[in-house]
Amino acid sequence: MLNVSSARVVAARKLTERAGRRAAGLFLVEGPNAVREALAAGAVRELFCTPAQAYEGVSYAGPIHLVDDRAAAALSETVHPQGVVAVCALADVPPEVALARRPQLAVLLAEVSDPGNAGTVLRTADAAGAGLVAFGGGSVDPYNGKVVRSAAGSHFHVDLVCDVPADQVIHAARAAGLRVLAATGDGSAGLDDEDAAGRLAAPTLWVLGNEARGLPPELASRCDDRVRIPIHGRAESLNLAAAAAVVLYTSARAQRR
Amino acid sequence: MLNVSSARVVAARKLTERAGRRAAGLFLVEGPNAVREALAAGAVRELFCTPAQAYEGVSYAGPIHLVDDRAAAALSETVHPQGVVAVCALADVPPEVALARRPQLAVLLAEVSDPGNAGTVLRTADAAGAGLVAFGGGSVDPYNGKVVRSAAGSHFHVDLVCDVPADQVIHAARAAGLRVLAATGDGSAGLDDEDAAGRLAAPTLWVLGNEARGLPPELASRCDDRVRIPIHGRAESLNLAAAAAVVLYTSARAQRR
Description:
21% strand; 11 strands; 257 residues; four-stranded mixed sheet; alpha/beta; homodimer; 35% helix; CATH 3.30.1330.30; seven-stranded parallel sheet
């Protein structure tokens, strides 16, 4: 059983830092549910688990290391380690590759810094049937432990794009025939009006900005339209993940009518 | 300037614990935006701020205490204290009082334990125009610091109900003429079908369950219908706050058509 000072554990721990992930081309996925998705996607390169957390029923030919609780905790980024951590290959693709698959629904996060929000948007985009989720330059690293945890396995379900400037993603999406819509608090078009007019049935890239600052104006001006989510009550705005859920599910419904 | 050992600061610190809040009938609200909403609602009983955080432009006749940074940090539950903390009167009302105002849209959280999720649902419900948000028995305390932070002032915008058993809220809502819908992963009715059939235009109470376990079956069986949010992609489910955003905005749109 490996302990916290074993060379394999020490090497895997480096993946809790962005620099370590980029150098190795690997990231960590924790917990039985997310690890199952990683295994199904063929992304797992190495698996660590505690004896208490039997891991079986999946086809996986790579190394499985039994670790003690301290080593499992050292590889975990949560308060309650779940006893299973997989080392996985980074999953992102260039935007052109993702767009060549003709996604009907896509999301671009621009300068989104909160990892929980970013991971929830990725999970929600997956649920809404989006084919592409891009983390534009200046956004949190999609392989950050909190993003991975919030996304609950969706890294392996959609085409993930990262480390590409937001305006380059917008340009490529438009060239691929997608309508590019900025979700903003003060857009000129109302979401429900866009929906009622049938304009959300087209293939769409939704662009979402930072939790506090919103979309940079120069980026919003590059979108085809700025769309406002209605605020019926007295809240000043929606949380980013809630806004993403509203626009993505409105598009998903419109595209299936 | 008050320091961390001042009697007022020591007394206010007790409000970071549930027992202290219940004993005093008070809770803490932090940050300029949320405190502005509390002031507008007339809920503030005492205000603490640092000299760096000038607080002006609002009508407030109660005590304002200047505090040093350490005292501000002691009253804060965040990593980056914002320098303004208000002691506010608890804001909840009995369900009968809230229902007498005839809300068209309402939410009940059943055994929801994650404070960030709960606060985000409250904020989203406010944005969607809901008039009532109930935290059923077994849910996180709505006055918990993380809930308050995530709700961003919405405690003062909707009728908040708490410490009431979930089935009692369901009973009272139905008696007041609301349709009671459980949002579940496996409901018999699809959300889009309900919407297309015009059934979401009625006054509605949405019942949402725990992040991991979902709704207790005995509670789901007390609802008029169990409604399934479609999963178009490969995610297993939606995060609770995202699910709330989808159902509440679908209802809000249906009620305004």
